[in-house]
């Protein structure tokens, strides 16, 4: 796989299509590879520029897809041929990817969310995708490297030998965990996915899908969870705008 890569706002993203996304576990397994797949939105962009561990995660990532229309729009302003088809959020691409895994006999592991939420998310997918080989572990454990709880989780993952590992423990904790453990994990592909299990378990309402296509999913989430998300949209979004204006000002011919 060689999707186009573009640099903008100090980060690098790949113009992955949905078809390419859902083939990643299968191709990685065929090649006996170990791929790290990241994603970028305004939240990750802010943390990337303020957290060294986050930067190490993206340096290790083999592919980074776009999760947020604002980055598509900013990329286009900077001259990159990005379209709505290059924006993917796990709510949309995860179900077809899991269907593909079930059809090909590929194993999947979910790591993250509160105890019980991980199991409810797994039950949702098992109900809708017959034959899916899926195991889970919640994200409420002591992730200290070398600590007994972390070692138990790593052993549990490796015993299952998943082709695809989805880590949803929030940024930047999930990226830190991947960076600290990737070399010991017996997997083929790993994603940083945030609160994806909360949605499929029914713990958090899934935003109407049209909101994501027109760039309003963040607004919907802010209205639903203002106390948890206000900082993300009040502080982090203006930071992205500042990065954009700075980059535009540095372009040849700007005044």
UniProtKB/TrEMBL annotation:
* NCBIfam families from the UniProt entry: wecG_tagA_cpsF
Question: One GO MF term, please?
Answer: hexosyltransferase activity
**Superkingdom classification of source:** Bacteria
Matches recorded under Pfam families: Glyco_tran_WecG
Name listed for the protein in its UniProt record: Glycosyltransferase
* KW Glycosyltransferase (keyword) present: yes
Q: Which UniProt keywords apply?
A: Glycosyltransferase, Transferase
